[in-house]
């Protein structure tokens, strides 16, 4: 089976044509700056080491997706003879609210339910819907499947997802913790369970660390807590997001600086985190360079980031009554050896013992980072959200 995986943002479109069974990626790429001057298109065929990068006008997602399809079926560098070879299309949808606890075949009713959750993800869900509508128009008759970022975390108990607000804020407004990066947390925790021999019982902490970062406590294969909340703003300090802070601090800053609702939202989401503390960049690599150069604000940002990750590990270990494995994923989790070491330092009381030599060497694939006598497994596991989407799509379309 060939599944076209689509991840549609407000001005971008990531795609992969993939075999969910063999994991083979036939082609992949990215459309950037859709609807903006200077639109960019990337197309790659991994098996042939072939790549195209060009600027091409893409006023809407329809032109972007047509460009994707045209290259997939191109006589010289295409990977399929026609779109008829695409068996199904899997879409990443950010917010499923409480409506969707698993992936679903997309119908008119499903699209209406996704639209009903637009208030919970105003920047993402409308763009995701745009991608769905565009695929249905360009490839009529092909089954489309929605795979939700929030679905994996729908197994959280009420004690984890409820906020201590007036109860009607939950019943009437659906204000609660939803969590995100669900496909990544699912893939990484499943991979870790496979490495462990698929035990009946397991306690796994997943650290998905990137420009957007989140953590999860996965008990016996199910998410029982996660760091992101109603929106991706809650939880860890991130590239430009503040993460956990006193809500009263928000009102204090807003009042003292005379900011509008939009301005304070922008301050919390786009001017905080690494960027807010370091001041020079939101990129963790730049922060690490600053640490090496002795920049005090870079050191502070690095200390804060690692401290908060460590705090969540301690909290989740307590919540699950221990921990069997800690997994690092995402751009930072997979590549920043120094951050991994700093996060795990001082967790020996939990039974964590890092093999510092192995941790310091960059290797591809799943890598065991814990020492042989460590009571807790520590692994670096590159996430593969596209494969999760492709597998879910295949399972739903084939009825398996």
Automatic annotation (TrEMBL):
Binding-site residues, ATP? 14, 208-212, 283-285, 331-335
GO terms, molecular function: acetate kinase activity; ATP binding; magnesium ion binding
Q: Which GO terms describe its cellular component?
A: cytoplasm
Give me the reactions it catalyses. acetate + ATP = acetyl phosphate + ADP
Keywords associated with the record: ATP-binding, Cytoplasm, Kinase, Magnesium, Metal-binding, Nucleotide-binding, Transferase
Return the Pfam families for the record: Acetate_kinase
Pathway field of the UniProt record reads: Metabolic intermediate biosynthesis; acetyl-CoA biosynthesis; acetyl-CoA from acetate: step 1/2
Q: Where does the record say this protein resides?
A: Cytoplasm
At which residues is there a site annotated Transition state stabilizer? 181, 241
**Where in the sequence is the active site?**
149
What detail does the entry give on cofactor binding?
Answer: Mg(2+). Can also accept Mn(2+).
Task: Read off the InterPro entries from this record.
Answer: Ac/propionate_kinase, Aliphatic_acid_kin_short-chain, Aliphatic_acid_kinase_CS, ATPase_NBD
UniProt cross-references to HAMAP family, sorted A to Z:
Acetate_kinase (MF_00020)
Q: Which family does it belong to?
A: Belongs to the acetokinase family.
Kindly give the NCBIfam families that the UniProt entry links to this protein: ackA
- Free-text function comment from the UniProt entry: Catalyzes the formation of acetyl phosphate from acetate and ATP. Can also catalyze the reverse reaction.
Q: What is this protein called?
A: Acetate kinase
Q: Which organism is it from?
A: Fusobacterium equinum
Q: Which gene encodes it?
A: ackA
